[in-house]
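An instance follows:
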Amino acid sequence: MERLMDWLVRSSSGWTVGGFAAFALVMVFFAKLHLSVDLASMNTVSKESMEAEQTIEAIWGGFPRKPCYGKRGNLGGALAGGGRAG
């Protein structure tokens, strides 16, 4: 397989992409999908996550909870006059 893929990479013809697509299709049949989901752990927050959130809260304050957005346009007049933008 490795020689075949090396040969496909070296060749610069238009069917190289087709060769890669055919190889991917063949390899799909050899793939073993194993999804292991623990439904109980999906509804809980780990200790590490809580500690990380507390660290962010200590550094940034409540900033991550506040919605932030940007506005395009000419805001020079509104901001220069002390008024609110928007």
Observations:
- The chain has a mean pLDDT of 75.
- The helical segments are 2-10, 16-28, 39-42, 47-60, 76-80.
